[in-house]
Amino acid sequence: MGERPYTLTAELTYRCPLHCAYCSNPISYEDRTPLVTDQWCRLFAEAEAMGVMQVNLTGGEPLLRSDLEALIAHAHHLGLYTTLITSGVPLSRRRLTRLRASGLDAVQLSLQSTDQGLADRIAGLVVHETKLAVARWTRALGIPLTLNIVLHRQNIEEIRDIIELAEGSHAEKLELANTQYLGWALMNRQALLPTKDQLEEARRIAHAARERLAGRMEILFVTPDYYAGLPRACMDGWGRRHLVVSPDGLVLPCHLAHTLPGLTFERAGTRPLLDIWECSEGFNRFRGEAWMTDTCRTCVNRTVDFGGCRCQAFHLTGHLEAVDPACRWSPDHHVIQAARDQAEQKSERAPLRKRTLQMVP
Amino acid sequence: MNDASRPTLSAKARLHYDRQRDALFLLWSERGLLLNRSAGEILKLCQGDESVSSIVNALSSQYPHTRRHVIEEDVHRLIRDLSRRGLLTLE
Questions:
Q1: Can you give the pLDDT at residue A1?
Q2: Within an 8 Å CB–CB cutoff, is residue B28 touching chain A?
Q3: Which pLDDT belongs to residue A347?
Q4: Which residues of chain A register pLDDT less than 50?
């Protein structure tokens, strides 16, 4: 076996009480029957047998599943490291205690802003105070806490306050996650993409804080591909390290792979997970280098970025094999440049289109 | 860190045996490190009840053909690196 997965990202549901305008879920999807408890449990066991060590429980909002305790208990029983990736809504201290008792290893909690008004506007719901309470309960129960905040032009200048809030929450880790412009975020790009100066300033502050807090709180700040001039190693390469399973059981190499046309993905349970990983058309489509254009295939970076993000390449160029336009050597790089130029214009704040559930009948 | 410090894996980190590679991984939230054999042997002793010098002693008797100062350097480097990443705490 050439590649093996290390991480399973289990998208337990696409439902979510929040409506963030940069949500990474698909804009629309077919409303199929979600996997039930036993199906997820079998999937975890198969994944563990293939070498998976980590299960990220996410969504949507995984707390909306009443069987979350059972799923965590099963993953824990298999020896998997479980991280709950959550908005913290709806959660009580009592339920968090139960989740911990079931074997939950860590919590990644999303915040929208340090400003309550802006936070609630971005989430589309009054939840900021609740989230701060969840952060306190998490630490009080001894659960390792990661705070994740998606950065964009409306909150990036709060970065000092964000770091201070994370320190005050005794988070183990702070992810300053620059927005990735796919799906909802791509639709809202004009309202979200920061200027170069905003980004440089944020990076400077983040790096200084990382040095200052070394050993106490890990700070993750990755220059977004729109400003790096180079594509990111999306998912550490297509079908190399990660398995993503959608709420209805599609086994995917990334959480948006099923938005690409013409690729075939398979449903968990229809044949062994190992066969799907090794043999399915969709997984093999962008493995290796044969699919690459000459620009990528002859590039020294191909073993670093694995050809960048296929979803971004397709959604910005209309071509599946195109060089990721984030790359300065892409013939389509002007698309990125144009978005950056637009971000520099001091126009009225562009409206945000909030995330809703849109199902294809 | 000094010889009397007692390193302990931090609460977020866990040692995980990987059957496929016959090797230990250090896991924490959404991350993992593949450990080489010596790093794995050192971390197995980082449970909070052994001091840095007793870890060096234990490994020196386990690997009599490796010079003590080599082992000592390995142990110090690993403990320093992982402490800096918040994966070990020193008591």
A1: 46
A2: yes
A3: 65
A4: 1
In order of A200, A209, A216, A235, the CA distances from A212 in angstroms are 19, 5, 9, 29
For residue B31, the SS3 value is: strand
Q: Taking all residues of chain A, what is their mean pLDDT, rounded to a whole number?
A: 95
A208 three-state secondary structure: helix
Task: Identify which of A324, A311, A356 has the alpha carbon closest to the alpha carbon of residue A20.
Answer: A356
- Nearest to residue A52, comparing CAs of A27, A78, A70? A78
B interface mutation test: which of A52, A83, A218 has the most B CBs within 10 A? A218
CB atoms within 10 A of CB A140: 12
Question: Which residues does A323 contact at the CB level (< 8 Å), separation at least 6?
Answer: A293, A295, A296, A307, A308, A313, A329, A330, A331, A332
Under 8 Å between Cβ of A310 and A286? yes
Q: Could you say which of A51, A83, A214 has the minimum Cβ distance to residue B29? A: A83
Q: Is the dihedral of CA A203, A208, A213, A214 positive or negative?
A: positive
Q: Is the pTM of this model over 0.90?
A: yes
